[in-house]
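seq:
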Amino acid sequence: MSLVDEVGYFLARTRMDEREFGRRAVDDAEQVENMRRGVPVTAGRALRLRQFIASYQPTDEAEADASAPAPAIAAVSPSEDREERLARNVALSAAEQGCQLLQFKILKLYEAVARRDGLTVVEACILLNYGPDRFQTWRARQ
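struct:
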């Protein structure tokens, strides 16, 4: 079950407003809407969302009545067990850290080329990404 499905299931079961859920879980009222639009969710934020769902306790009687699952919904079980979700979150976290490291190394490369050639970092970025011909065209327009 995807994170979007888990959140949708939780919202249907508890009848909680999606903006309220986002606000309470990760201090972002737009979180559920962004997830439905396909905006990526970081591993840390996904973990916080799942922790909120797992530890949710209704704060009053109205919420307690609403949080009782309907029989049809209660029969649905996640396709992944807890260990699989944890392993996927660890892998996503490692991939996220790998991307950050790669971005850092690319920035260092741009800085090194900029120092070597007497350019700004932006100019080095354009030179390395688009080649010398397009760089000269861009520089002529500046």
